[in-house]
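Data deposition worksheet. Section B asks for the primary sequence of the deposited chain exactly as it was used as input, without tags or linkers unless they were present during the calculation. Section C holds the resulting structure in token form. Section D is free text for depositor observations; keep each observation to a single sentence. Incomplete worksheets are returned to the depositor.
Section A, Depositor: J.P.
Section B:
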Amino acid sequence: MHIPWSQNMRKTQRRIARLHDRIANIRADALHQLTTDLVQRFDVIAIEDLNVAGMVKNHKLARRMADMGFREFRRQPAYKAANAGKRLSS
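Section C:
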């Protein structure tokens, strides 16, 4: 049996969705600022490749590792360094 959501439940869902969106935007902005700062300050940037898939299998690290966005952290300096004429080594 399907029970339709009340108006208060809809408002709560919208409020939660806005909060999640705000947190995602804050994280993305911080990541952009960090990678831009690294590329501007250094001519050569070295990034170590991590076994993120293996780390996510550890239940104590899984949520934190998924939230960090390591893939995006690896991608952003690559294109920013290329645009700035800097060198990125992994």
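Section D:
The chain has a mean pLDDT of 89.
DSSP finds four helices and two strands in the chain.
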